Each structure stands twice: as structure tokens, then as C-alpha cells.
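Lecture notes, part 5. Sequence design as translation. It can be helpful to think of inverse folding as translation between two languages: the language of shapes and the language of residues. The source text, in C-alpha cells, appears below.
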């Protein structure tokens, strides 16, 4: 558990890294427009700051045995943040796919996440289908009241809720784990409690299995098996003593 007044070093590092990347993108774009900018500004800044002492670590994850208790606290309120976190936990998706969720992405209990919202190289990533449990559909229905400008989890002014919104929520609640870590929680729950093929477990998290050539011929997305898995995961989150 963390003190509410403590700022996570990981969050500080990630914020700085993202800020520098954004600044670099802006400067590069400005240079392409022939504006008078220093194209090497970010590199010079890094040189002045010196070598970082930050050591890459795995995203802090909550043990799967503790997730139901945290999920129960989220069910006590129905703000955008709690609902977004619930859907993230239920689906095993990364936060970007949740934050940029649009109603048209959902059809016949299947959420199709566009490739541009997924991690990976452009043109090599395909749309990803996620079977939605009854609990996930309920959360989406509750969150739909916040829909604005085509986004279910819209921002206060424009766009969508920020990635830091969910991370800060967990930090203020005293948790070291971060939203992205729930993917690990789900994967470990599957490994420890469910008897499913390796391919089903990996595809549930959107991980690639087999080579590019094999994937080109394998069209099976294991939707039925994954839906059964998602329903069991949702049941465990809501009623852990009965699962």
C-alpha cells in the first residue's frame, strides 16, 4: 500500500518520457513546415539532463486473488473512472482501447477494437475482436450515459478521459498496481485456474501466437472459448467465493 501523498516514481518517469516524445513530434512537424526550430532540441535536453537512473520494470500488477476486492470498491460508484476501470479489468484490454471506445465498435456482444488503438507497428496490426461478458455489457450500458462526441468515456471538455485518470485513481486509493497491470492479473488467473489451450489464453490478451505466415492462414479467433473465459472471469470478480 502507498501513502496518498506519495507520488509514484514510475508515473513521474512516464510523464516526462511522454512529454519529451510529444515535444519531439511537434518540433519535427514544425521543421517539416520549414519553421525556424531546433530539430535537435530534445536530444540536447536529454544530454543536459544526463543519464537517467530509471530502470525499466514490469508494470505493477495486482495479484489476481486481490482483484475481486478492488473490483467491489469500483462497483460502489458509477463515475466514468470507476466504469472505465471495471471494463478494463473485465476485458483485459489496454487503457487506450477503453478510453477511445465508441458505440459503433460493439455489435452482437462483440467489441471490435480498431487496429489504430492497438499496440504494434502500423499495417502489421489487425482489428481485434473481444467477446463481451454480461457484466461487461452492463458496464457499457451504464457508461453510455456519459457518451459525448461519439466517445463513451468522453473527457470533461473534449476528447476522452486521460490515461492518467485511472492511474491516479489507483494511486489515491493506496494501490501500487496500475491499470495496465490487470492484464497480468487476468493472464495469471487463467494460468492458475483455467484449463484452456495456450493459444486461447494468449489471444485473450491480444498476444500474437505463431509466426506471421501461420497467422495469415489461421483465422480462428476462438470467440466462443474466449467468451466462456470472460464470463468465468466476470463471475469470479463479482462472486469470488462461489467461483
Amino acid at each position: 500500500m502507498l501513502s496518498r501523498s506519495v507520488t509514484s516514481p514510475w508515473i513521474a518517469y512516464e510523464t516526462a518520457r511522454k512529454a519529451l516524445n510529444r515535444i519531439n513530434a511537434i518540433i519535427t512537424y514544425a521543421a517539416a513546415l520549414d519553421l525556424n526550430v531546433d530539430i535537435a532540441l530534445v536530444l540536447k535536453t536529454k544530454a543536459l539532463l544526463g543519464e537517467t537512473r530509471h530502470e525499466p520494470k514490469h508494470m505493477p500488477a495486482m495479484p489476481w486473488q486481490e482483484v475481486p476486492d478492488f473490483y467491489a470498491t469500483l462497483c460502489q460508484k458509477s463515475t466514468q473512472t470507476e466504469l472505465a476501470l471495471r471494463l478494463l479489468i473485465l476485458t483485459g484490454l489496454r487503457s487506450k482501447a477503453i478510453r477511445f471506445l465508441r458505440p459503433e465498435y460493439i455489435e452482437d456482444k462483440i467489441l471490435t477494437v480498431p487496429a489504430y488503438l492497438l499496440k504494434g507497428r502500423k499495417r502489421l496490426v489487425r482489428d481485434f475482436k473481444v467477446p463481451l461478458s454480461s457484466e461487461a455489457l452492463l458496464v457499457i450500458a451504464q457508461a453510455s450515459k456519459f457518451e459525448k462526441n461519439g466517445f463513451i468515456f468522453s473527457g470533461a471538455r473534449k476528447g476522452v478521459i486521460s490515461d492518467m485518470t485511472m492511474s491516479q485513481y489507483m494511486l489515491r486509493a493506496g494501490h501500487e498496481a496500475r491499470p495496465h497491470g490487470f492484464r497480468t492479473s487476468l493472464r495469471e488467473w487463467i494460468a492458475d485456474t483455467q484449463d484452456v489451450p495456450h493459444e486461447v489464453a494468449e489471444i485473450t490478451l491480444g498476444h500474437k501466437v505463431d509466426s506471421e505466415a501461420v497467422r495469415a492462414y489461421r483465422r480462428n479467433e476462438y470467440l466462443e472459448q474466449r467468451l466462456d473465459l470472460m464470463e468465468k472471469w466476470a463471475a469470479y470478480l463479482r462472486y469470488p467465493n462461489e467461483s
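The translated text above is only one of many valid answers, since several sequences can fold into similar shapes. The chain has two domains: 9-49, 64-238.
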